[in-house]
Amino acid sequence: MHPMLTIAVRAARKAGNLIAKNYETPDAVEASQKGANDFVTNVDRDAERQIIDIIRKSYPKHTVIGEECGELVGEDQDVQWVIDPLDGTANFIKRFPHFSVSIAVRIKGRTEVAVVYDPMRNELFTATRGQGAQLNGYRLRGTNAKDLEGTILATGFPFKAKQHAPAYINLVGKLFTQCADFRRTGSAALDLAYVAAGRVDGFFEIGLKPWDFAAGELLVRESGGLVTDFIGGHNHLNSGNVVAGNPRVVKALLSTIREELSEALKR
Ligand code: IPD
Ligand code: CA
Ligand code: CA
Ligand code: CA
């Protein structure tokens, strides 16, 4: 196993155990608001601290980018650990048992290893660039859907940016006539892991942050899928507008996105 994947897995499991333990004791969870419809808890912060401690022990010079801590620039800026300590905080607060820990390592801008861990199901999704994606050690493959007919699509509502609500609802309406059904699970990292595992055929969301999709993107790629922005390019690293699935599903999603979304949202 890639040595950085070993550390990422150790950190994800440790944080996942902390999250699972706190899930059982809701009175110990303190939620506060970061912005409109945007919540954080003491568990998000504690999980992130545990992850960073584990990384720092092995790699004291690496740079860390975490949702709650921001960018901790290290002596070595070529290596960046991109962390979402708890993806699906709203689910966690509501005690809806679907959330994850997401950790990716980028070297000179290219993601090399990825972990998404679901502590409620003990499902560990891992990938190393060029070596495939695994779930608990078993090789993953996405679905082989040829177009959107019969597909199950995952998505996330733009709940922090409701100015996009009309455009988004319109797009979902159009896609709903082409696919079988939708899922909105509340963890973008798991949505991407589920694309890699073939549990859903495709995924799209407006305005994600790098830590939401850094690990999931490598999982999808290493399972044979594609991850792009809304015009089939790579600007999702800046815009957070993400489309994922096998190449044919991505093509079909992009064609409807192209027709329905305004220029402003297209990258
Ligand atoms: C959120 C989840 C959610 C997605 C949001 C993310 P958080 O992350 O991934 O599924 O729809 O866009 O912000 O805040 O729970 O880590
Ligand atoms: Ca958050
Ligand atoms: Ca997230
Ligand atoms: Ca988070």
From TrEMBL:
Example of a GO biological process term: inositol metabolic process
One Gene Ontology CC term in the entry: cytoplasm
Primary subcellular site in the record, as a coarse category: cytoplasm
Keyword RNA-binding: yes
Gene Ontology molecular function terms on file: inositol monophosphate 1-phosphatase activity; metal ion binding; RNA binding
E.C. code: 3.1.3.25
One Pfam family hit: Inositol_P
Co-factor(s): Mg(2+)
NCBIfam families assigned: PRK10757.1
PANTHER family in UniProt: INOSITOL MONOPHOSPHATASE (PTHR20854), INOSITOL-1-MONOPHOSPHATASE-RELATED (PTHR20854:SF4)
Name under which the protein is recorded: Inositol-1-monophosphatase
UniProt organism field: Chania multitudinisentens RB-25
Lineage, uppermost ranks: Bacteria, Pseudomonadati, Pseudomonadota, Gammaproteobacteria, Enterobacterales
